[in-house]
Amino acid sequence: MVEQLSVFLENESGRLATMCRVLGDAHFNMHALVVADTSEYGVARIICDRPHAARRVLESSGFAVSVTRVIAVGVPDTPGGLADILERLDSAGVNVEYLYCYVRPEGAIAVDIFRVEDPDSATDALQLGGFTLVRAAEIYEPDAA
Amino acid sequence: MFQPQYEAMPAGELGELQLSRLRTVLERVYANVGHYRRSFHEAGFRPDQLTTLDDLRRVPFTVKDDLRRGYPFGMFAAPLHDIVRVHSSSGTTGQITVVGYTRGDIERWSDLMARTFVCAGATADDIVQVTYGYGLFTGGLGAHYGSERLGAMTVPISGGNTARQVQVLRDFGVTVLACTPSYALLIAETARELGVDMRSLPLRVGVFGAEPWSEAMRTQVEGALGITAIDIYGLSEVMGPGVAAECLHKTGLHIFEDHFLVEIIDPDTLEPVAEGERGEVVFTTLTKEGIPVIRYRTRDISRIIPGQCACGRTMRRMERVTGRTDDMLIIRGVNVYPSQIEQVLMGVPGVAPHYQVVLTKRRSMDQVEVHVEVGPDIRFDEIRALEGLQKTVSAAIASALAVSVKVKLVEPKSIQRSEGKAKRVVDLRSEGANQ
Q1: Do the domains spanning A2-69 and A70-139 agree at the CATH topology level?
Q2: Maximum distance among all alpha carbons in chain A?
């Protein structure tokens, strides 16, 4: 299971920059960042080293942060690779809230990050289906809560 | 009771005391204050014509502007030589007004604030942290003198520096906290951040006032601090804190009627409302020497709660102030008090108690935005959950108050915290802030 930071951001100029600067100044390296936005606010989802420590740093700077458990799956480099995963989840009755993709620099392998309602049963379903789950330590430096 | 001979006085005896004191104070202002001499003349009234308390209705009302016009000392009824202290109103609604106290006024005020602390269950064995601001504001020194009069150990820390407030509360073993209710919440929040468990401290009672607050907020403060929260009432124009106070039965605030004559009027017709009806609270000070006020319109909205209190005090009770005639919002024809919005927010899980109502105008229509902080319990990872929360809040406000508002979620701590009075309403309507 992979732990992702979710940060609530008001739609205010410079807010995302401030958040990145706080993380940068405290030497937290980000591996993936995606921002979901509405007209009034956004939620930044971040895969970074030592997510729990990063959460504390952001909170002490006044950000609303939560740590969310997500699933990381190595995507086969063939057409229809993602469709296979989604069909597997669908047939297991797992509802996907959102997903995003990033490419690991080492080896040019794509990793898809899934946020699902029930990560444990999703993990089981994917493992039974023969998909490769990516462990936290493979993509960032995990830490304890 | 601190002064049972007055606090539990039979109604008939109290009426006689009020009448004789009223006659004295009317004579005092008639002789010493130009404003009252003129206004009594215009109304064709002389103090010697007063034979019953109801005759007071022949006397004109006093409003805030009358006090402003007298700035700084024009409304004093005692020579400056006899004034030993001045305070001023907080000026939240305009130019400040100055109030003066004779030595006797300070004595009586101390007694009344001691009554207030005893109402809240305090004794000489308590340690009272006075977090109301000291200075021109009446809260700090008012509470201070009352706490000392009671004989409690008094900690005159004044407002501000919340981390130090928490430290002193813990290290001194403080048992009674006197401050505004919104500042009490800030203290609770700061203690949590500092890892101090307020519920395990000896703190037992909060004596909270100086701003309108709701029953839901009481529940929240009591839970967060592990205390009994008592509502107190006062205003500098009338004396300061110590005009009325809840006892531990929490069924309304006992008005100290031996010193303050209360009327509840309809703010439009200026006629008295029917017994128990809500209206504007009007006070006449019966014993003040420095700056008595006669039929002073407070703008506060309340009512007299019928019946007797189980505590044995005969002083009648007023309901907690639910709003002011001048902060009442008229939103598309519906009367709304900010405290009602707060009441609704307190009932929605995941919403922090910090909110601000922002009023703007769009094509001559009033627009209301309620800014609510995202609390730690919200699952804000999912936009769906955030949108759901916005819908829940606006639906709750719509069903409770019959007005539609736009709910805006904001980051934690982005709404200014109060160290004195919370700024709950930002009115941009007159600034041409068309959006």
Answers
A1: yes
A2: 46
Pick the closest to residue B405 from B413, B417, B395 (CA basis). Answer: B395
How far apart are the C-alpha atoms of B322 and B329, rounded to whole Å? 13
Work out the number of other CB atoms within 10 angstroms of the CB of residue B362.
Answer: 11
Which residues from A are below 8 Å from B379, CB to CB? 66
C-beta atoms of A66 and B380 within 8 A: yes
Q: A70-139, which class in CATH?
A: alpha beta
* Per-domain boundaries in chain B: 1-326, 329-431
Residue-level pLDDT at B430: 64
Using the beta-carbon criterion (under 8 Å), do B382 and A97 form an inter-chain contact?
yes
B379: nearest CA partner in chain A: A66
Q: Across the interface, do B412 and A62 touch by the CB < 8 Å criterion?
A: yes
Amino acid identity of B352?
Answer: A
Please determine, looking at this structure, whether the domain spanning B329-431 carries the CATH number 3.40.980.10.
no
Percent of chain A with pLDDT over 70: 96
Is a pLDDT exceeding 50 seen at residue B24? yes
Which of A16, A19, A41, A68 to mutate against chain B (most B CBs within 10 Å)? A41
Q: Average pLDDT for residues B66-80, to the nearest whole number? A: 94
Q: What are phi and psi of A121, to 5 degrees?
A: -70, -30
| Nearest-neighbour CA in chain A from B229: distance (Å) | 29
Place of tokens 């330590």: A137
Confidence of residue B91 (pLDDT cuts 50, 70, 90): low
Residue-level pLDDT at B21: 98
Decide if pLDDT at B435 tops 50: no
Dump pLDDT digits (tens) for A14-63: 999 999 999 999 999 999 999 998 888 899 999 999 999 999 999 889 89
Q: Residue B432's pLDDT is what?
A: 46
- Separation of alpha carbons B317 and B289, rounded Å: 25
- Say what percent of chain A tops pLDDT 90: 57
Q: Do domains B1-326 and B329-431 have the same CATH topology?
A: no
Q: Where are the domains of chain A?
A: 2-69, 70-139
- CA–CA separation, B435 and B422 (whole Å): 25
Domain over B1-326 is classified CATH 3.40.50.1000? no
* Angle subtended by helix axes B181-194 and B215-225, to nearest 10: 30
**B391 at the A interface (CB within 8 A)?**
no
Residue B271 pLDDT exceeds 60: yes
* Predicted-complex ipTM score: 0.78
Report the CATH fold assignment for A2-69: VC0802-like (3.30.2130)
